[in-house]
Task: structure prediction
Amino acid sequence: MQGQTIFFRNAPKIVSTATIAGPKECAGIVGRYVDRTLTDDTFGEKTFERAERKMLLYAARKCVEKAGLRTEDVDVFLSGDLLNQIISASFTAREIGIPFLGIYGACSTMSEGYLLGAALVDGGYVGRAVAATGSHFSSAERQYRFPLEQGTTRPPQAQWTVTGAGAAMLSLEGSGPSITCATVGTVVDFGVSDANNMGAAMAPAAASCLMSHFRDTGRSPDYYDLILTGDLGALGSRLLKDLLWEKGIDVSANHVDCGEIVYKVIEDEFQGGSGAGCSAVVMNSYIYDKLTGGSGLRRVLFAATGALLSTVSSGQGDTIPCIAHAVAIENAPEVQK
Amino acid sequence: MQGQTIFFRNAPKIVSTATIAGPKECAGIVGRYVDRTLTDDTFGEKTFERAERKMLLYAARKCVEKAGLRTEDVDVFLSGDLLNQIISASFTAREIGIPFLGIYGACSTMSEGYLLGAALVDGGYVGRAVAATGSHFSSAERQYRFPLEQGTTRPPQAQWTVTGAGAAMLSLEGSGPSITCATVGTVVDFGVSDANNMGAAMAPAAASCLMSHFRDTGRSPDYYDLILTGDLGALGSRLLKDLLWEKGIDVSANHVDCGEIVYKVIEDEFQGGSGAGCSAVVMNSYIYDKLTGGSGLRRVLFAATGALLSTVSSGQGDTIPCIAHAVAIENAPEVQK
Result:
């Protein structure tokens, strides 16, 4: 480990991905790239929680199928989600039967899964790892905020939890873009206590993680074709750029936020998407396609961001601790150290 | 990976541990081994949730201090807990500032932390990892069951959530018992839906994990001086022994359950302890002391068990998915593969 950054000697590949998203999400750019578009966000289930887990199960199974494998061929399933006690992940693990390690990083879960999966594969501890996460607007809304039936007005700085799930399979065998290194984030809390302003809460954690990444790797932002944050939304993205600018780091040329691009955002209207499914869907559909489809995208720094709050901590007056983990995904990289 | 089992080439050592527990817990055997006994289970805090996180912070800091190090010397902090969105772990990570990876395995979190920490250290990805978890009777009770003020009667098969926390530091440098291999559990659900009977729900997951471990390693139960399950309690332990006996595996001679021994149990009265803090406290105080103190205990198979339910899944009629991960901890082991 160099500082906070792990370098992978064998640069594990992302050999397949799969995604599913709801109707609102698929009206945007990801609609052209997801494996399945839901026309009904209940996915035929009686509760939103069951719909969420069915999406996660779909993404995990589809990702294995697209690699031409069976679930028995996968050694470990790394997953977590926003619901209390990560039930979407646990119930999905029960259905697919792959040895399971539960993880939690709120909306940063996808990059945590990439990071831990890459380490387990790179070290030869497992042959194939599937990392997956997802979220559902309606299950998140009623768990974190208000009953949907209440029709609460949303403040202008609020983001919209993405209904969707994404999964990725990591292996040393096969082809695909490689994970060359990853920076483990520290928890950063700038004192934001408004659970409707998560972009502002998470921006300092994203800035901290990116600064550590550039410091540890000796790379500058222009090393990457794309610096992809998780779900800062429009306001959070502006804050991130400002925070980095103050430290002499300019990411304005190549920064994109999954939350900003997942919906057809009219910026005055709302801040974009959030939720563990936001970066999971955008990264594993649209961006993965560009990394593998000959579009010229070669180096992506994927830094999903998470707000580590609960209704209890907010209710007890705590501010919002946040985190981000950055994963370098490169085509034909020079393998490090 | 052999089946579900990871073998560690360099057998990372548990170089230090630290524990803290409440007054009820310290009336039992662990009272002689914990670093700090609380006389007041609020730990001077206004809420039980804050007391829980203060215990976790104490254990993490104390573990680093006992190794003669500072928190800056630790590369990664692996932690999770039972509270929604693992806030105890996240807020602890904020205070200590170590790069943080959130994990969740309910009461199996301690063995998941050992397993992932061992892999990261063994592969040379991090120099030192601290794994930690904890729980608090009062915060768990009001989150998972009923308001404490209600004074609800407990059914005879209920366990008592341990108030306590434990932490362990893993490193290739230093001395201490080694983690030689670890078996990642699959999620097992035998259809138990009674959230007051977690021992019965978890026993099949423990049996599954132990069977996989013996199959993958070619070891028999008598290879170990002690097979230590997490928190099955009295009933769950009997079920585990029966389930294994049916498969021709006899663990009766060397099986002990952390939940059974953490309190002064009069068996007719109640089932013993549970909670993420149960195995974290017993393993990292009493058992670690026996492994390092020349008592002759040489080989321990530590299999913490977790019930992956939430109040929402139970409320929606789901049964309880469970998991266990087994970690082989050995003094002066022959290093494998």
